[in-house]
Amino acid sequence: MVCKAPLTMECSVADIYDxxxxxxxxxxxxxTYADERYLNEEGKISYGDxxxxxxxxxxxxxxxxxxxxxxxxxxxxxxxxxxQEGDV
Length: 88
What we know:
Number of helices: 2
CATH architecture: Roll
Strand content: 35-45%
Mean pLDDT: 84
CATH class: Mainly Beta
Radius of gyration: 16 Å
CATH topology: Pnp Oxidase, Chain A
Number of domains: 1
Helix content: under 10%
Structural class: mainly beta
């Protein structure tokens, strides 16, 4: 794996879509490797601590992440206690 990467995902290519300007790869994640510094008590990745960088199309910009802005399933009873902020 990449030595300086705190998170590495090993993927298999399922399909490729060719367009005039680039190819889009549809992949499935086979394995995930994470630096232990970015794992919570349950061994899950804490994206709030990791703060991954996203590559965004079509502007070709890199975006910083990490702040929790809300919970997707907060309407579901009991879900709030099951997840901590920033954990997956």
